[in-house]
């Protein structure tokens, strides 16, 4: 299967209580899953620019996303049914509050991103639906350790 290259910016958004924001995707062709805010980098856009745009569009927060904290490669099929090989860059962002404004969601996002939730580490450990990245608790723990 030929996969399309997909650069993407993902946000590890933590609120004041150290909970991480995930959106629930409810696609027509597979079981529901949860995912961090973020998405594809637009042509001519840098990863940091894409991170800020995606954060604003998906949460209503217009914040500097700071430096990239993690790079990963993932292969999956997008909601639109396109097989991709994704170069994902992650940005750790601290939200000033836990209010989320989804008014900037596209028509597709409105249809498939059915809800959001701020997850504690205990919530992630007890989750009954898959979330991505699958090792999110370990990633967050590693980022919070002094370097």
UniProtKB/TrEMBL annotation:
GO molecular-function term, one example from the UniProt record: hydrolase activity
Keyword line: Hydrolase, Magnesium
InterPro entries: Nudix_hydrolase (IPR020476), NUDIX_hydrolase-like_dom_sf (IPR015797), NUDIX_hydrolase_CS (IPR020084), NUDIX_hydrolase_dom (IPR000086)
Highest taxon of source: Bacteria
Cofactors required: Mg(2+)
Gene3D superfamilies: Nucleoside Triphosphate Pyrophosphohydrolase
Chain ranges of the Nudix hydrolase domain: 4-141
One Pfam family per UniProt: NUDIX
Magnesium keyword on record: yes
Family the UniProt entry places it in: Belongs to the Nudix hydrolase family.
Full protein name: NUDIX domain-containing protein
């Amino acid at each position: 299967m030929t996969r399309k290259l997909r650069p993407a910016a993902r946000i590890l958004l933590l609120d004041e209580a150290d909970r991480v924001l995930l959106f629930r995707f409810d696609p027509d062709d597979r079981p529901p899953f949860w995912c961090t805010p973020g998405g594809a980098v637009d042509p001519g856009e840098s990863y940091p620019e894409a991170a800020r745009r995606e954060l604003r569009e998906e949460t209503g927060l217009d914040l500097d996303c700071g430096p990239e904290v993690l790079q990963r490669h993932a292969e999956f099929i997008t909601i639109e049914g396109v097989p991709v090989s994704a170069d994902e860059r992650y940005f750790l962002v601290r939200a000033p509050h836990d209010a989320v404004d989804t008014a900037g969601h596209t028509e597709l996002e409105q249809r498939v991103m059915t809800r959001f939730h701020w997850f504690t580490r205990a919530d992630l450990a007890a989750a009954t639906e898959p979330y991505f990245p699958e090792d999110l608790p370990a990633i967050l723990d590693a980022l919070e350790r002094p370097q």
